[in-house]
Amino acid sequence: MPSRAFSFYLCLHVAFVTSQLLPPFPRILGGAPKCRPTAPATLGPYYIAGAPPSKETICKGANENHQRLIVTGRILDATDCRTPLASIIEVWHADMNGAYSHFQYNDSYDCRATIETRSDGQYFLKTKFPGRYRINEKVVNSYRPAHVHFKITPLNPKYGVLITQLYFENDMFLYPHDSCDATVCTSNDTALIVSLTNFRDVKTFEGKWDVYIKPGGNGFIDSGKGGH
Ligand SMILES: *[C@@H]1O[C@H](CO)[C@@H](O)[C@H](O)[C@H]1NC(C)=O
Ligand SMILES: *[C@@H]1O[C@H](CO)[C@@H](O)[C@H](O)[C@H]1NC(C)=O
Ligand SMILES: [Fe+2]
Hints:
- The chain is mostly beta strands.
- Helix content is 10%, strand content 23%.
- The protein has helices spanning 4-21, 182-185; strands at 68-77, 87-92, 112-116, 122-128, 147-154, 162-168, 193-194, 204-208, 211-213.
- The strands form 2 sheets. Strands 3-2-5-6-7 form a 5-stranded mixed sheet, with no helix packed on it. Strands 1, 4, 8 and 9 form a 4-stranded mixed sheet that branches.
- The site of one 2-acetamido-2-deoxy-beta-D-glucopyranose (NAG) has 3 residues, from loops.
- One 2-acetamido-2-deoxy-beta-D-glucopyranose binds at residues 182-183, 186, 188-189.
């Protein structure tokens, strides 16, 4: 019967030999692709269909003296994280005062556009930086974080339509301070929050956001006319 000390040595030895036989980081090469379907969010009350194709910018005055936003990225299949999904993207957001065209001011398609991706799924959005707004005018600080609404329709009907919202890092009204509940507005999801840099000029904030959609779609959040 081996001594206790010998057994201990044997264990160490086996552990050492085994660790030598295993590749150091077996999961880094291959393995399941790392992405998850982009979470849906509520459509909210301010969507209107038929926004014109995006031109250079989607808000009037986007080249004037206030903050601008540029977001680029790709629409991709969520099962392999790489198959491009050429899509039609409708975007809409509040102007710098937190007002939506067609609702709080009379310019139906200001800060709204329909954007076609390239065949490789790449989109380009250039606009004014969206303003924040309160969801209840009577409640001080009932703000939502700045956001852009997206309705993404892949040309291949095998993938569903995705309605979601994009948020920006370090916004003080992100979850848990978003006055729209996380069950419908999802600002608790870090995959919907982009970080921004301004390397072009001090007022132009740029971010990159890829969207993943699975066959059959990522689901819907139906909050009726509520939401925001
Ligand atoms: C939009 O225009 C109509 C007609 O001129 C006016 O009655 C209405 O108050 C305007 N609405 C807003 C939000 O400016
Ligand atoms: C956000 O909150 C909702 C509602 O509680 C929850 O269903 C969802 O899983 C959360 N998302 C993340 C990414 O934590
Ligand atoms: Fe909104």
